[in-house]
Write a structure and sequence with these properties.
With 224 residues, the protein is mainly α. It is built from eleven helices and no strands. 72% of the residues lie in helices and 0% in strands.
Length: 224
C-alpha cells in the first residue's frame, strides 16, 4: 500500500471527512515546507515536500496552484508562530528597561524567522507575495516601535522619523543576521550588540546616556 494519498481517491468519503482530510493535507504540506527550510533547504521541490509531508506530489499541486499560494500559506503559518513570541511591553518601564525588553524580543523573533527569511530572500525578486510579506513585517515593526517608544519619539520633533527608521533598521532581521551569522556571535552576544546600537541611537537623539544602563541590564539578564 502506498504511503501517500490522493484526495481524488477519497470520492466515496463523506463531504465533511474529505474537507477535514484536505485541511490536514494542506497543513502537512506547509509543515513539511517549513521543516525543509529549517534544515537549510531554501529551494524545496514538490517531490521533497511531498515526501516529507507523506502525500503525493499531485496533492501538493492540488492544494497549491502555484508557488505564490504556497508562499502565502507558509507566511501565514510563520506569522502565527511569531505572534506567540510577542508580548506586551509595560509602557511604565524606564526607557533603558524598554529598550532591553523590546530588542530582546526582536532578537527572539528574528532568530525564529531566520530559516524562513533566508529562503524568502532567495525567492523575493520574482514574488509579489513575499515582497508584500516583507512590507507588512516592516510596517508592523515600525508601528510596534512607535508604540513602545512613543513618549521619547514625540519629544524629537523633526528628527522623529529619522530616529524611528534607524531603530527599525537596528531591530531588523538583516541586522540580526549580520551579527549572528556573519560575525558569528551567539544569541546573547547579538542581543548586546543590538541593544548597544538601539541605546546609542536613542541616547544620541535624546541627549541622554543610555548605553551604560542598557549594557548593565543585558548583562544582568543574560542567560546562565
Amino acid at each position: 500500500m502506498s504511503s501517500t494519498f490522493d484526495l481524488d481517491e477519497q470520492s466515496a468519503e463523506p463531504l465533511d471527512g474529505r474537507t477535514a482530510r484536505a485541511v490536514r493535507t494542506r497543513e502537512a504540506i506547509v509543515d513539511a515546507t517549513l521543516a525543509l527550510l529549517a534544515e537549510g533547504d531554501v529551494r524545496p521541490t514538490a517531490p521533497r515536500i511531498s515526501e516529507r509531508a507523506g502525500v503525493s506530489v499531485r496533492s501538493v499541486f492540488q492544494h497549491f496552484d502555484d508557488l505564490e499560494t504556497l508562499y502565502a500559506a507558509v507566511g501565514s503559518r510563520v506569522t502565527e508562530r511569531v505572534a506567540a513570541l510577542i508580548e506586551p511591553i509595560d509602557p511604565a518601564l524606564a526607557l533603558p528597561e524598554r529598550v532591553v525588553a523590546f530588542f530582546r524580543q526582536r532578537g527572539r523573533v528574528n532568530e525564529a524567522l531566520t530559516p524562513t527569511l533566508r529562503a524568502a530572500v532567495v525567492h523575493a525578486p520574482g514574488s509579489p507575495t513575499i515582497n508584500n510579506q516583507f512590507q507588512n513585517g516592516h510596517a508592523f515593526v515600525s508601528a510596534h516601535l512607535a508604540e513602545v517608544f512613543r513618549p521619547e519619539l514625540d519629544r524629537l520633533g523633526a528628527t522623529r522619523d529619522v530616529v524611528l527608521d534607524s531603530l527599525v533598521a537596528v531591530g531588523s532581521w538583516s541586522t540580526w543576521n549580520t551579527v549572528r551569522h556573519l560575525s558569528h556571535r551567539s544569541e546573547a552576544e547579538a542581543e548586546r550588540v543590538v541593544g548597544h546600537l538601539a541605546a546609542a541611537v536613542l541616547g544620541d537623539a535624546l541627549g541622554e546616556q543610555l548605553t551604560p544602563r542598557v549594557a548593565e541590564l543585558l548583562a544582568e539578564q543574560a542567560p546562565a
